[in-house]
UniProtKB/TrEMBL annotation:
Residue ranges of domain Putative zinc-finger in the record: 31-60
Record's keyword terms, sorted: Transcription, Transcription regulation
Taxonomic lineage from the root: Bacteria, Bacillati, Actinomycetota, Actinomycetes, Kitasatosporales
Species: Streptomyces musisoli
Superkingdom as given in the UniProt entry: Bacteria
Protein name, per record: Zf-HC2 domain-containing protein
Gene3D superfamilies the UniProt entry points to: Anti-sigma factor, zinc-finger domain
Amino acid sequence: MEDGGLPLSGLADLGDLAPVPLDLSHDVLKSLLGAWALAACSAAETAAVEEHLGGCGSCADEARRLREAVGLLHQPESLDLDPSLRTRVLESCLGRRPPRIPVPDWAAPYDAEAARLDALLQDFGDAEWHAPVRLRWFEADLPTSRPTTVAGVIAHLLAVDGLVATALGLPDPLAEAAGAAEPGTLGPAGRTEAYWRASHLPPASPHPSGGNGPLPLRSVRGPWREQSHGLVRTVSFTGGHAGGLTVPYGDFSLPLHDAMLDRAFECWVHAEDIAEAVDYPYPPPAPRHLNRMIDLAARLLPTVLAGRRRAGLSEPGRRTPHLVPAGAPGRSLRLEIEGAAGGEWLIPLDSPAAVGSADLEVAHVALDGVEFCRLAAGHVSPEDAAVGQGGDRRAIRDVLYAAASLSRM
């Protein structure tokens, strides 16, 4: 008779193949418990350890704990992760900057967003670097866009982050741009166009074979990554004392602590653009960082409102701006941001010199935090922003359009 294809007479032969436990001391067997838990022992060593566990309580307890620990390290379900991911993450974290040098609180959002974007770019191949991306913003109350590639977006970030770099005394990536105007005279859009030209970077190239310049597109990641690390290292070594340094943006300027927030915001927004282009999920920033980005936008709104009035894009205020004493209360719109990054801001409507006043509140707008940021990035139109509204309709319209006017290339 046969069972499973083996003659019964062969069973005796199989028994001869069973491993014979080795005669090992207690100390040696104890030293083998870690390897046994990881299934790294030889057959003979495994047999010796398991025979020993039947009669040694302390080793049996230790073996159980080791097996439980191994179970935590090796989840039964597949997570579809690169086996080297943990090593790469640790090396990246340790290599970003020297430990024990804290990043200033106001620079932490940029540090986090640059790290997240760098992780997204980590394994991009040629196809991803050539993926088409459309930069979007509002200009003169109309949606505007510019086609480029993933590489073009990183070059854009590199060029505009260079404004902060030069303010800190670091090299300007645009300084050697052939034929470019004096870099300090260019704003974000001008710097981007100049860098694209100087780098022979195609603005839009939907396929790896469509590039029209000598620069390998993936090579733009290295300079951007090094510059972002340099910015974080420099402000960290200053101990945060440089936060009030002025960063010129061409036709306006920001103190360094606000410029770093602005760059964190742009880094996140364009990382979302890239993730959308390669069909990859990308979550919003941490709520505490998102709250600071929202606060920056809210603080800029009164100045933007005043500029829009001068340009004839908004109705004149109820009071002549230059007659409003600094710090005087003025008509206000209450901006309520919902969600984990939320809060409330009173936006003075008639003059940036005024302060918001709950007693003079004439309108109320409620938005989700991420939705407000996408409005400020020019990715959502004022008409399409999902908002709760109440009060003066003109004031509401002016503030929503002013928020969209914060966007730029």
